[in-house]
Design a protein that fits this description.
six-stranded antiparallel beta sheet; 3 helices; single chain; alpha+beta; 164 residues
């Protein structure tokens, strides 16, 4: 079962958080966390449901009008990945076998996604720092979708671990 929890104190994502920032964290409980965090990140950030891919394509068309970055969605990856195969969708800001933090900075906001491996499972966390009113409006608009996507990403890790 995947549930929203507090970001663990030992996550390196804690170092990004400032007063007023958004941060959420979903925990995917597993019997044994066999994959490294980079491997789990590849599962979490790819193999997205078609509705997410379509929503991101729409988002990219809209934000390009305002001169914001548009991210290309990764193709589905094979389930067999190794620690050196980190996703190329976002810049890597921190990398160990137990945690990977990726993300991007833009005019309206900065964000990071962390996948943290723990003995009992994987934490999928998002941090967002808004720069202006447009960033705050953007965050407000995407929040309902974001929570579903984060939970879905953590669930994909959990399901993948069960098949190992």
């Amino acid at each position: 079962m995947v549930k929203f929890v507090k970001l663990p104190a030992h996550s390196q994502l804690q170092s990004f958080i400032q007063k007023g920032d958004f941060c959420d964290c979903a925990f995917a409980s597993v019997t044994k966390a066999q994959m490294t965090a980079p491997q789990a990140s590849n599962i979490a950030l790819s193999q997205l449901p078609s509705w997410v891919t379509n929503l991101m394509a729409l988002r990219n068309r809209i934000v390009s009008i305002f001169g914001l970055k548009t991210e290309q969605m990764p193709e589905d990856i094979d389930a067999e990945v190794d620690a050196s195969n980190t996703n190329s969708l976002f810049q890597t800001h921190y990398l160990t076998e137990d945690e990977i933090i990726v993300g991007s900075n833009d005019k309206h906001l900065d964000f990071r996604i962390s996948v943290l491996r723990d003995s009992g499972g994987y934490y999928v966390s998002t941090w967002v720092h808004t720069h202006n009113i447009f960033g705050k409006m953007y965050l407000l608009f995407v929040m309902p979708f974001h929570k579903i996507i984060v939970k879905n990403s953590a669930s994909r890790i959990q399901k993948h671990v069960k098949t190992l």
